[in-house]
Amino acid sequence: MSKDKVKTVFFCTECGYESPKWMGQCPGCKAWNTFKEGLDNKQSVKGSPSTKRSTSEKTVIIPVSKVEIKKEDKIKTNIGELDRVLGGGIVWGSLTLIGGDPGIGKSTLLLQVCKSLGDSGKSILYVSGEESAAQIKLRADRIGEFKENVKLYCETCLDDIKEVIEETKPEVVVIDSIQTMFLEDVASAPGSVSQVREATGVLMRLAKGLGVSIFIVGHVTKDGNVAGPKMLEHMVDTVLYFEGDRHASYRILRGVKNRFGSTNEIGVFEMRNQGLVEVANPSEFMLSGRPVGSSGNVVSCSMEGTRPIFIEIQALITTTNFGIPRRQSDGVDLNRVNLLMAVLEKKMGLPFGNCDAYINVAGGIKVSEPAVDLGLVVAILSSFHNKPVKEDIAVFGEVGLSGEVRAIAQADARVNEAKKLGFKKCILPASCKKSVQDVSGMELTFIENIKELKI
Prior knowledge:
- It is built from 11 helices and 23 strands.
- It has helices at residues 42-46, 80-86, 106-119, 133-143, 158-168, 193-210, 231-235, 282-286, 334-348, 373-385, 411-420; strands at residues 8-12, 18-19, 35-39, 74-75, 90-91, 95-99, 124-128, 150-154, 172-176, 213-218, 238-243, 250-258, 266-272, 275-278, 297-304, 307-319, 327-330, 355-361, 393-395, 398-399, 405-406, 425-429, 443-447.
- The strands form 6 sheets. A 9-stranded mixed sheet has the order 8-7-9-10-6-11-12-13-14. A 4-stranded mixed sheet has the order 15-16-18-17. A 3-stranded antiparallel sheet has the order 2-1-3, with no helix packed on it.
- β13 (266-272) and β14 form a beta hairpin.
């Protein structure tokens, strides 16, 4: 294409919407100030080898009953926490995106997956666009000994990578990372909206056409989202995010999207010298180091898929030194904290207008389930009155605007898990009385309103 014919367009970095001029708000996703200028590559992409198909490659219409699938529908990674989040294993021909902060362990986890699958006889191709072969080898030596069927390919040109995949036909491919890959026919820099979108499209066609399972590593922005258009998450089959402080030892892998399983499951890992190690009992791990006899600390329970996770909620209520009280939360929605404090002010007459409030969920996990509302209320009351809650009490229930304690799902599973962890008493909604059976050695206290709390 000649220089005088090159045109620039504006892309929305959230959804990929294109416009000939800059706009303050995207008409597609309604996001503000997300348009970035880039080269118009429609003409080059339209005729590029990556998108053209020959007559022999065209798909045919067949009945659903005639579709053949492999007997082994899912590939076990032998990493239990990862298999749980994936929905039982890796699906043949799937495209999985893994995002997370720099240094949190994305590449390490995928290298461990390559080793585990290689040990089981699968052919693996690890494509790195960020590190040299020697750098990857240094990290691989800490994980263990790799077999010959795990191949390493350091390249950023996706056209060459596509040829290698079509020739070698590996069963699993890892692309680290999508922001470093580029197509020669796309007239923009690697990592741009158009490059990321077109590169993902090529990988998606390879995964579906050849039946190759592909993992993509994605960089994240300062907001924690995968860098590039939001449509990237819509193109892939599964989206996994790493959570947790990279300076701490724990890592939480959460499924945000999964076409082959639940999106509520999480996997908990601990970073050690030999790589990421599974945490078999996340509740015990989250509650380790819990202070005894300290006010403002209470244990609650959140359901992550089919697994009850017990967490420690910490609250610190103190008199403010400024005209406007400060509210801060980590691990739980701040708006939910403000709502619950307003309910306590209205229904129990507590003067929070001159108090700072700091809420924290220990262990680095982020909780969004309403079942932890009652735990937040108890922690706030405990800190406000400076009265500690007994360490053998677990609290869970949803709190409404009238102060009522509403029913929660799978209350019996939470109570049984509390029993296994050594708790002696549970405070839960009265509406769950029919669904929860008596547990020997466990005292169950059912309440209908927060006014019934004895703190």
